[in-house]
Amino acid sequence: MRFLLCxxxxxxxxxxxxxxxxxxxxxxxxxxxxxxxxxxxxFNEALEPAFCHIHLxxxxxxxxxxxxxxxxxxxxxxxSIPLPPLAAGEYLVKWSVVSQDGHRVKSSYSFTVKxxx
Length: 117
Fold this sequence. Notes:
- This protein is mainly β.
- The chain has one helix at 2-17; strands at 22-26, 32-33, 38-43, 53-57, 63-64, 70-71, 78-82, 89-98, 104-113.
- The strands form two sheets. It has a five-stranded mixed sheet with strand order 2-9-8-4-5, with no helix packed on it.
- It starts with a helix and ends with a strand.
C-alpha cells in the first residue's frame, strides 16, 4: 500500500513540474525558406496573452519591428504574427511566454530566407 501511495505522489509531482513546451513553429528552426509572411508558434498548453512576446533579429542583430502576436486558437496556445517583407539572410526569433499557471518560458531559434529568384 505504501508503495502505491509513493508511486502516486511521484506521478502527481511530475505534473507539477511540467512547463510549457514549444510544439511547432513556422518557419521551422534551421529551415531555409522563401520569404515568409507569417510566424506561428504552437505550445502544449494555454498561455497568458498579455505576457507573450516575439522578437525578430536579422543577421546584423538589428531588431525587425513586429506587431503584437495574435492568438489563433482556443485555448490560447497558438500565436501568430504577420511578418514584414524579409530580405535574404539569417533571422533569429526570440520568444517569451507565460503559461496560465504563471511559469515563464523563453527560447530562440533561427531560420534563413532564400534569395529571391
